[in-house]
Amino acid sequence: MDAVAVDESTFTELTARHRRELHVHCYRLLGSFEDADDLVQETFLRAWRARAEVRDDALRAWLYKIATNACLDVIRSRKRRAPYLQPYPDTLLDELSPDEVLVGRETIELAFLAAIQLLPPRQRAVLIMRDVLEWPAADTARLLDLTVVAANSALQRARATLRSTQWTPAKPSGDEQALLAGMIEAHEHADVDHFVRLVRDDIRVSMPPSPQTFLGVRALRPLFDIAFGPSGMGEWRLLPTSVNRTPAAASYLRRPGEVGFRPFKLDVFRMDGGLVTEIHTFDARMFDDLGLPKELACR
């Protein structure tokens, strides 16, 4: 491939087949679905400008190098600002072709992403390339312009930091869909007792981008009063969905005096041992990406 032989149409065709996997890669590095959109566009722009540098048989690795460096630039520019973790629709993860990297839950779940955001930029990149994408040490070093020794050293430090966060992959049971259905039923019927039976006593609830976290069932009582109390917000309808390879529920709210149910929030559940252990609640901005209805009619 060279600048003379490849026109814009051909270049777009060659690179577009890698769009989704590059988007997932940028998402892991940044923890942001929206930032990943921007960084994929930046990757293709940089690639077009430097298209004379690549061979056909090295296109994928070259694009990963550009995408990784573009993401590292963004991460470094953030300095100490905490990233806003966003969910990733499973419907888009399913767009990856069979010959691309399969996306397992343990490498895309929100708990893992939150843990790797604690790593310095280069260590984060090395960990993703080696332990998630399973690239060889030499290829990873080449991508990051490191020696193999330096890349391996960064990997060991990254693994040690990840262990110190006490993150472990969830051990879901086979009845996740039944548990999700129970959570939806409890929410729609404002049944607090049913909800409490389905969650672990030390449940952790977050509402990104707010830094506030609720720990334990007792801490959730004020939220129950707001959502389900006599002067509550209204009537709820929920639809099951999935993001980051984990169960989720899209909540629609019909306020008093309104006709239809409007998008309100997205709850993402972490389940372990037959109970819900974490809930991450997001606003409704990703409903379109999830292919969810814009409104639900009354039953």
From TrEMBL:
Subunit description = Interacts transiently with the RNA polymerase catalytic core formed by RpoA, RpoB, RpoC and RpoZ (2 alpha, 1 beta, 1 beta' and 1 omega subunit) to form the RNA polymerase holoenzyme that can initiate transcription.
- Does the record bear Zinc in its keywords? no
Origin species, per record, is Kutzneria buriramensis
An individual GO BP term: response to stress
Example GO molecular function: DNA binding
Q: What Gene3D superfamilies would the database entry show? A: 1.10.1740.10, 3.10.450.50, Winged helix-like DNA-binding domain superfamily/Winged helix DNA-binding domain (1.10.10.10)
Lineage runs: Bacteria, Bacillati, Actinomycetota, Actinomycetes, Pseudonocardiales
Signal peptide positions are none
Which residue range or ranges hold the RNA polymerase sigma factor 70 region 4 type domain? Answer: 111-162
Keyword Transcription set for record: yes
Specify the protein name: RNA polymerase sigma factor
Tell me the Pfam families matching this sequence: Sigma70_r2, Sigma70_r4_2
The RNA polymerase sigma-70 region domain sits at 16-81
Family per similarity comment: Belongs to the sigma-70 factor family. ECF subfamily.
Coiled coil location:
none
